[in-house]
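Protein in question reproduced for absentees:

***
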Amino acid sequence: MAPQRPKGAGATQAQAKSPAPAQPRSAQLYAALDLGTNSCRMLIAQPKGSGFHVVDSFSKSVQLGAGLEKTGRLSRGSMARTIQALRICQQKLRKHNVKRMRLVATEACRRAQNAQDFIKRVHRETGLKLDIIEPEEEARLAVISCAPLVNKKTENLLVVDIGGGSTELVWIDMKNVPKRDRPESIMRMHSGFIAQDKSLPAARVVDWISVPLGVATLRDQFNDVEDDAARFALMSWFFEENLSGFSPYHDTKARDRFQIVGTSGTVTTVAASHLGLKRYDRTKVDGLRMSSPQIDAVINSYLEMGPAGRRADPRIGQDRQALIMSGAAILQALMRCWPTDRLSVADRGLREGLLYAQMSADGVLDSGAF
């Protein structure tokens, strides 16, 4: 399956999360559910200031895409596991009386031959209506979720979202946007990559791509390679090969004004390992900047551990240990390709983007800087 590209570039309007305390403008709760190839995740939140306050959450590894590479179909076991998780989500939505929600499915359901049957079964058994979103919307939502982490000095931004079944990359040019407006110009993309309001300073999407390789799909393609180090090297090379058509800029002189923001379980796990966290702490990970040597050191330590060592490492965790090396292979390939030696770590993604988009469309967020 070939990487997917858009037909245009640009921006629109939304707001971002502020760390300063503020009174909620709306008592209404919003929900966002992201059903990916590997995980089912949901947030329930209330608008607060220029961001939101999380009221409830859910996260479960359901492995919906297990076996998809071989059969082209969602298996009975993976569908049963996923529906069981979705029932819990439905109970939480009912408990909190949530009326405004967006529930989406991504790459596994985009690719599976029986995806529509599965979506109908989910609705029949849980009452939940899932939308299978296109790669462009997935990329856009990941971008706006990361807007608060954008440095005001950044002129070129690359946002990378490493998922279970696909990896989205969006390259954004902000040179013509005033520095103070750069993070907020990213938030204006909530309804499209093409700028709708020409009177506002617009960040310009130079290029984007959706590569149908994520931590689960890349691992499955190289499962037959027994040697741990060889498998890692092959995965990294193969992912880089799939990026060959994505080259918006190769100007190494832009290093000081170029920023990569990475959002995924892989990126946050590598950050937690770098910090030596025995128990994950989002406040220490989200927004952390890691250098290329620091990332390489963590990945090399994973290789030295071997599969048994990684399974026992509390920094990686049981849910992540089987996928961490395929994710690390993607991350290392990305850091080789682009003119920067630092990565901004984002513990945020599709769910946060879905919440921002809904709240912005309803006008319940305060305007203002991040």
